[in-house]
Structures are given as C-alpha cells and as structure tokens.
Amino acid sequence: MISYVFWGSLALSGIKEGMLVWILFLLCQVGAPALAQDLCQRDAPNGYKVRISLKTALGEDAYEWNQSEMFFFQATMAFAMRRHFQMETYNVDNIILCVQTSRVSFWFVVTSPDNTTMLIPKADVEKAVRMSRHRINNAFLLSDRTLEFLGIYPTLAAPVNPDTPPWLIVFGVVIGAVCVGIIALLISSLLQKRRKEKGMTEDGQDEEDMQVKGVENGINLDGTYNRGFTDDDRFTKL
Amino acid sequence: MRFPKLPNLGLGDRIPSHQELERMEKEEAGDRPKWDNKTQYMLTCVGFCVGLGNVWRFPYLCQSHGGGAFMIPFLILLVLEGIPLLHLEFAIGQRLRSGSVGVWTAINPYLTGVGIASLLVSFLVGMYYNTIIAWVMWYFFNSFQNPLPWSQCPVNANLTDLVSECTRSSPVDYFWYRDTLNTSTSIGDSGGLQWWMVLCLLCAWLLLYVCCLRGIATTGKAVYVTSTLPYVVLTIFLIRGLTLKGSLDGIKFLFTPDLNELMNPSTWLDAGAQVFYSFSLAFGGLISFSSYNSVHNNCEQDAVIISIINGFTSVYSATVIYSIIGFRATERFDDCLEGNILALLNAFNLAEGSIKEGNYAESLQNLNGTFPETIQSLDLKTCDLQTFLSQGVEGTGLAFIVFTEAITKMPVSPLWSILFFIMLFCLGLSTMFGSIEGTVVPLQDLNIFPKRWPKEAITGIVCLVSFVIALIFAQSSGNYWLALFDSFAGSIPLLVIAFCEMIAVVYIYGIDRFNKDIEFMIGHKPNLFWQVTWRFVSPLIVLVIFVFYFVTKVSSNVTYIAWNPSSEDFPTLEVLEYPAWIYVIIFILAGVPSLVVPGTAIFKLIRRCCSNKNVYGAEVDTVSAKVQMFTTKMS
Questions:
Q1: Disulfide: which of B105, B434, B473, B485 matches B48 by Cβ 3.0-4.6 Å?
Q2: Cβ contacts of residue B27 below 8 Å, gap of 6+?
Q3: In this complex, do A170 and B141 lie within 8 Å of one another by their Cβ atoms?
C-alpha cells in the first residue's frame, strides 16, 4: 500500500517535501507498532518476564488484573527508571509490554527516551528494579515472592545481629539464680550444723555418755534403745 | 514345702529383725532421711520412672510395630515383667532400709557386686542423660526470640545466598547439627570443645546439684514441680494439637492396629525392653527411695499405682506427640502439593486457582498426556501423606528436629517451644534425681568417702566428676559418643543386674522369708500372681531379652550414623563403622558393670580364703548396749 502511495504521489508531482512528510508519518503509524513488536517478544535479550500471583498474596481481597493495572505497571517502571537514571525522563511509552497470559505473566522491555528504537540493556534495567523494588512491590500490595522479575533475585535481608545473643541473656539469668540457690542452701546447712553442735555441747556436759534422742531433763527412760554405742554398720565391709 | 534356696549363712545378723524394725519405727531414729509425706515419695518415683523415653521412644515403637496392636504386648509385659520387678525393688528396699549396695551386701556379702554394678550404671547413664538435658536447655535458651532461630536458614558470609548446608537439608537439621552440636563427620574426629555446649552442660549440672544438694530433703520439694509440670504441658499440647489441621490423621496413624506385627518376635522383644527401661529398674534409685519409707508402707499398692501411671503416661504422650506429628506431616504434604501446583501453573501459564488439591491428579494427567516432556523437565515430587507420617523418628531426632519443625509452623511459636522444652527438662531432671540417688547412696554405703563428710560434699564431688567426664559429649563428636553410651551403658548391664536381683531375692534371700517380710510390712502375704512372676516368669522374660540383645549386638556389625555434608546421600545420615579402639570403650561401658557382679564375689572369696587370719567375732552384753568385739587368732 505504501508503494502505491509513493508512486502515486510522485506521479502527481506535487510538493515533494509535503509528500515526504506524509509518507514518513504513515510509516511511523504502521511501522512503529511493528517495530515495537520486534523489540518486545518472548525471551527478548533485553527484556524481563514478570510473574504476578495475586490470589496467593491477597486471597479474597485480590483485585482484577486488567489494562489499567498494566498501565499502572508501566508507570511504576517508568518511575523506577527515572529514579535510577535521574537525568533522563522516562515515560509510560518507554515501557513496552507483551505476551500477556492468564497466569498473570508478561514480558517487558524498556526503550530509551531519546531514541525509541534503542533498548536499555538488561543490566541497567536490573539495577533500576533493584533500587526501587520495595516501592514497586508496595504499589501493587505484593511482595518479592508474589511479584517476580524472573532473573532478578531479591537481595537477602542483612541478618540482625544483636550485641549479645538472646540465649546468653537467658542463660545468665538461670545460672545466676542457680548459683544463688546453691550458696543459700550451703550456708543454711552450715548454720544448721553449727546450731546443732552448739546445742549438743550445751547439753553434753550432763549427758556426755548418753546421746539418746527423746530424753528430757537427763532422765533415762526405761528400755530406751541407746544408739550411741551400736555400730550402725552391721554389714560386712568390703 | 519350702521353696529351694541357696545356703546363706549369717543372714539374720546382717539384717534388722522384725522387732528391731518396729522399734526403729516407733523411735523415728532420725539418722536416716525420711519422706515428708507419701505424695513426695510417689511423685519422686513417678518422676524417676516417667522420663524422656516415654515421650520419644514409646511413640516410635508404637507406630513402627503395628500401632494399636503394640499395646497388647506392651500391656502384657507390663503386668508380667514391670510390676513384679517394681514391687520386688520397693519391698526389698523398705525391708532392709538401705540403698542398693547395702541391700545386696546384707543379703549376702558376695552379692555386693550387684550393688556396685548398679552404682556404675547409674553413674554412666546419669552422665549422658544430663547431657541431653543440657541440649534441652540450649534449645530452651534459644526459644526466647521471634522468629525462632531454627525456622529459617541463615545468610552466608557474603550476604549473597543462604548457607548451602542448610538449603540442602533443612533449617531445623542445620540448627541441630551445626549450630547446636557443630558435629564432626566421624567419632574419631573430636573437633574440640564447643564453648556454648560446655556452658549449657555446666548449667545442667549446677541445676541438678542445687536440687540434689541435701538428698531427698531438696529433691522432695523439687518433684512437686518437675513431676507434675509435664502432665500440664502435655495436656496443653493435646488441646492445641487437636485444634490443628491434620492432628487426627496422626493419631489415627499411630493407633491403627496391624495385628500381623504380633507374630514378629522383635515386637515382643522391643515391648519387653521398653517396659524394662521405662521403669528405671536396676539403677538402685528405687530401692533407695523406698528405704526412706515407714516400714508398714503399702509397697504392693505403690508398685501397682506407679506402673499404671507409667503405662498411662506412655500412651498419653504418644497421643500428644502424634497429633503434632500428624499436623507436621499434613503441613509438609500441603507444601509439597502447593509446590507442584505452582510449578505446573508457572510452566503452562495457567490462571491461579485453576489447579487445586481436588483436581490436581486429573489436571496432571491431562497435561502429561499433551505435554509429557515439559512435565518431565519439571521434576515434580511425589507427595504422599503416609510417607510423611511414617518419617517415624525417635530419640533426639524426634524432639530436636521433627517436633521443633512442627512448632515453627504453629502461631506464637516461641511460647510452644518454651513449654515443650520445659516439659522435656522436667522429665529429664526428675529421672536424674533417681540416678544421683543411685550413685551417691552406694558411695556412702561403700565408705569410699570419710563418714564425717556431709552429703552436700559427696553430691558435689559426684556432680563435678560427672561434669568433667561428660565434657566428651561437648566435643564436636559428642553426639556419637552419646549414642554409644546410650546403646551400651544403659542396656546390657541393666538386664544382668535385674536378673541377679531376682535370683538374689528369690533364691538367696529366700522367697519364703521375703513373703513373711511382706506380710509383716503390709499385713497380708503376696498372692499367687506375685509368687509365680517372681519365681519364674519375670526372671525368664529378663533372661530371654538379655540373650536376644546380647546375640544381636555381638553378631551384627556395630555401626553408627553420622552427619556428613560432603557425603553423596546428604542429607541422609551416613552409616559408618566404629573404629577398632571403640571396642575397648564398649567393653568398659557394657562389660565392666556386668563383670563386676561375679568379679566382686570372686575377689571377696580370694580375700577370705587366702588370708591366714581367722576372724572371730564375740558379742558381750553390757548394761548399756551390745558390744561387738573382734579378736584375731592366728591359725
């Protein structure tokens, strides 16, 4: 169709420049989408596949993924690119989406704002995504796991290292309590023994050879079993 | 007709007569410790009997030997083996008013070896048992944080990825084998002491010391908590468990009877062994505890009650454990299925929710029909609930791996973790009281320490020595050493001692005298059931179990399982053979206590025969007391 227009316009031999402009305009209309199609395709070398799991993340509150959400995604990605590159003004048109499936997954590529035929290399896109990953996730109420950029692994959170491991604190408490308990019991045993010894030496003056329990006022009860002189160890020694 | 017995001279001089017992009872001769009340005694015995084995050995045996059908051999052997032995130990301790060494020496001086063997076994078992308590304490200390440290893999040093050893196995495995034990790859590779383990071990022994400081005066107070708390926690876990998804599957799995297992002799053997070890017999601790009772305490009733409580606790804890295991298995199954479904959705870009658990099988079939190569490349896992349920683990694996994993899946995990490990701690500690009693009292009876040393000092020395030797369990290879001790120190010697105990009481002390003693103590003679079991049935059962154990251990190649990240089947544990020098250790653990029994008898015989002195003893009655005088006459 373009060739007919071209030859036809030449035949008319009208204003060449005007015709040329019109021809270029037509080319852009037809060719641009075709060009964009070439840029964004499955397994594009400079593109990323995005996978979204709404039902897993939000369950009953999951919103519907439609064209508006896709537009929102384009806007978010443009924001991420702007944030990373700061000097260049990316627009929604610079984010091209394709191969949308019902899973919800799709591919996207990013074109340069100066030259729409040139793609931003994969590495730069990755840096931009990493920088704003948290913002992108939050925009969609999703997480690293439910909004996946296949090929961009989420950075692991740095481990929280407290100054003292918590277990040492509990250990310290327990062992402190135990030591206090041991010391208290040992001291009370010692005091008890001292009291007993004191008690014995006070009564002992009168009843030195009668260490009989159950004896009062030095009166020897009849038939009292005097343990003072029996050998406790009736068993044959080893 | 009198039951045949071996000649035993001088028995009457060695033991207090019935009149003397009555007299001692009336005067409350305060030299010997006494229970404050019956409850303390019962709780202490229950605590000693009910231990970690009820929680992590019985459920496994039950599940692997035909579920509900295992109850049959277990209950039969409980009645024929457990209760008679228990009654025997209680009665003899109460009658002869002494610890294990004292009792057997009183029956016959040549039997002192039985007491010494009990002492050695109590000492060795106490050492490794308290190490398990140290591990429990380590987990308890680590439970005071959210999220629990074993719920996720740690990040590696570069912060690039999770630690590979952890991703290949699981966070709970990693925390147990690496963070807790820092286990080496073989028993020969000692790997040095792990400082955090040494601290936990120190804490465990100090805690034990504070509770056993003054003997039953302190343990009697401690058991009010340590013996009752496990039941409270078990009940809480049961209620929590029953509200979790999949718990009933676990309980059903546990109790589904498979009557074919009853034909298998190993089922009966395992049941017999479990009953025996579960009652903590032959340690000497029960004899000691019962000797602090009043003479007319009804030991027959006590034996029956404690046996029933022990059996009930085993079944109860099995129910609780398997309800939680059922929950874990269901979670694993759901995760497995979800993973497969996600893989399918991602590979075929299907909408979420199009494949659910219900239509998974047919969806998979359809897709396999149309795209077989893609399905192959996905490498889907087979998810089978029965497989997950029968990942039947026992011992430390159950408590520190399977159960901790289940806890991480419950909401408010730190609370459940704290409760669980407090329960394990109480179960272990109350058993340790019996062990310490079985070690300290014989040492006192043997007069190894000077008499004037207080009990606190002797207990302290026992704890200190045990702690120092137990440092071998704090090495990297400590886990393997503990398994070694568990298999050998706590198995064969106990069977030997139990057999000798029964022979000693029935044939050397004399079952007729024993019957009269029990009649004196509780008011009626033991009935036919006791007579038959004491004389024939129980010794026979113990002998059979011993012979089978011995034969299996000796004939089979002794192996152990090791954690080796560089092995091919990792994370499956590697089966290794023990090095040659371990057999010396095995002999020390199993052989020495067993051989001490005849050894001491021979030693005493040689000493008496070879000594040229004949010792004559004369008794003189004086005004104040009987005085025993010894003269030596050169032959």
A1: B434
A2: A213, A214, A225
A3: yes
- Pull the structure tokens for residue B117: 């063997």
Contact A228 B162 (CB under 8 A): no
Asked whether the beta carbons of A105 and B349 are under 8 A apart, the reply is yes
In Å, what is the CA distance from B388 to each residue of A152, B247, B429?
34, 13, 32
Taking the C-alpha atoms of residue B360 and residue B337, their distance in angstroms, rounded to an integer, is 9
Which H or E element spans position B445? helix B413-445
Residue with tokens 């004939």: B555
Q: Nearest CA to CA, how far is A27 from chain B (Å)?
A: 35
**B575: helix, strand or coil:** strand
CB contact under 8 A, B145 and A166: yes
How far is residue B617's CA from residue B288's CA, in Å, rounded to a whole number?
30
Distances (CA, A) of B118 to A164, B131, B278: 44, 20, 16
Q: What are phi and psi of B410, to 5 degrees?
A: -90, 150
Question: Which residue in this structure is represented by tokens 């909408």?
Answer: B351
Residue B571: is the preceding peptide bond cis (ω within 30°)?
yes
pLDDT per residue over B318-358, tens digit each? Answer: 999 999 999 999 999 999 998 888 888 888 888 888 888 88
Taking the alpha carbons at both ends of chain B, their separation in whole angstroms is: 41
- Which run of H or of E encompasses A52? strand A48-52
Q: How many residues does chain A have?
A: 238
Contact B27 A226 (CB under 8 A): no
Alpha carbons A207 and A210: distance in angstroms, whole number: 5
Residue B560 sits at φ, ψ, to 5 deg, of -140, 165
A121, two tokens: 């290399």
Select the residue from A160, A161, A236 to test the B interface by mutation, using most B Cβ atoms within 10 A: A236
Residue A230: list chain B partners with CB under 8 A. 625-626
Pairing of β A105-110 and β A48-52: antiparallel
| Most confident of the ranges A3-7, B32-36, B179-183 | B179-183
Do residues B578 and B560 make contact, with C-beta atoms less than 8 angstroms apart?
Answer: yes
Strands B574-577 and B559-562: antiparallel
How far is residue B609's CA from residue B334's CA, in Å, rounded to a whole number?
75
CA dist., res. B407 & res. B421, Å (int): 11
pTM of the model: 0.83
- In degrees and rounded to multiples of 5, residue A106 shows phi and psi of -160, 165
Contact between B625 and A230 using a beta-carbon 8 Å cutoff: yes
**Token pair in block for residue B240:** 């929590």
Cis peptide before B230 (omega within 30 of 0): no
Q: Which two tokens stand for residue B552?
A: 């299996």
The answer to whether the complex's ipTM is over 0.95 is no
Q: Looking at A215-224, B5-14, B265-274, which range is the least confident one?
A: A215-224
Give the whole-number percent of chain B exceeding pLDDT 70.
95
Cβ–Cβ gap B350/A102 under 8 Å = yes
Please enumerate, by residue number, every residue of B annotated as part of a binding site: 47, 50, 54, 278, 310, 427
How far is it, in rounded angstroms, from Cα B303 to Cα B42? Answer: 10
A83 Cα to chain B: minimum distance (Å) = 25
Where do the H-state alpha helices sit in B175-298?
195-212, 216-226, 229-242, 247-255, 265-278, 285-291
User: How distant, in Å, are the alpha carbons of A161, B139, B146, B157 from that of B152?
Assistant: 15, 15, 11, 16
Per-domain residue ranges of chain A: 13-150
In which order are the strands placed within the sheet that holds A95-101? A95-101, A105-110, A48-52, A147-150
Chain B nearest-CA residue for A57: B352
Distance CA B526, CA A127 (A): 86
CB atoms within 10 A of CB A203: 13
Does the structure show a pLDDT above 70 at A116?
yes
Q: What is the DSSP string of B51-64?
A: -HHHHHTHHHHHHH
